[in-house]
């Protein structure tokens, strides 16, 4: 896998996996039904992962 960052061409060494709401699902019409989620995974190299984690923590370089 390649790193997800736009200008990075390194191989990925870590990933984030998260369930996100599937906004295109036809089953998400009513508020009373259980929403439909899909799992996405983003892959990053070590350097880009450190940047992402720093952003999540609110740190600036």
Characterise this structure.
The chain has 61 residues and is an alpha+beta fold. It has one domain (14-57). The protein contains 1 helix and 2 strands; from the N terminus they run ββα. A two-stranded antiparallel sheet has the order 1-2. The longest helix is centred in the last third of the chain and has 12 residues, at 46-57.
Provide the fold topology.
Layout: E1 14-21, E2 37-44, H1 46-57
Antiparallel strand pairs: 1-2
Summarize the structure.
The protein has 61 residues and is of the alpha+beta class. It has one domain (14-57).
Question: For the report, how would you describe the main beta sheet?
Answer: 2 strands, antiparallel
Helix count equals: 1
Shape: elongated
Number of domain units: 1
Q: Please state the CA-atom Rg, rounded to the nearest Å.
A: 16 Å
Number of strands: 2
Decide which structural class fits the backbone. Answer: alpha+beta
Helix content: 10-25%
- List the secondary-structure elements in sequence, H or E: EEH
List low-confidence stretches: none
Beta-strand content: 25-35%
Spatial separation of the terminal alpha carbons:
27 Å
Characteristic terms for this protein:
single chain, 61 residues, alpha+beta, two-stranded antiparallel ribbon, 1 helix, 2 strands, 26% strand
């Amino acid at each position: 896998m390649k790193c997800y960052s736009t200008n990075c061409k390194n191989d990925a060494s870590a990933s984030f996996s998260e369930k996100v709401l599937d906004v295109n699902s036809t089953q998400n019409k009513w508020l009373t039904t259980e929403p439909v989620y899909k799992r996405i995974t983003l892959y990053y190299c070590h350097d880009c992962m450190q940047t992402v984690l720093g952003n999540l923590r609110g740190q600036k370089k």
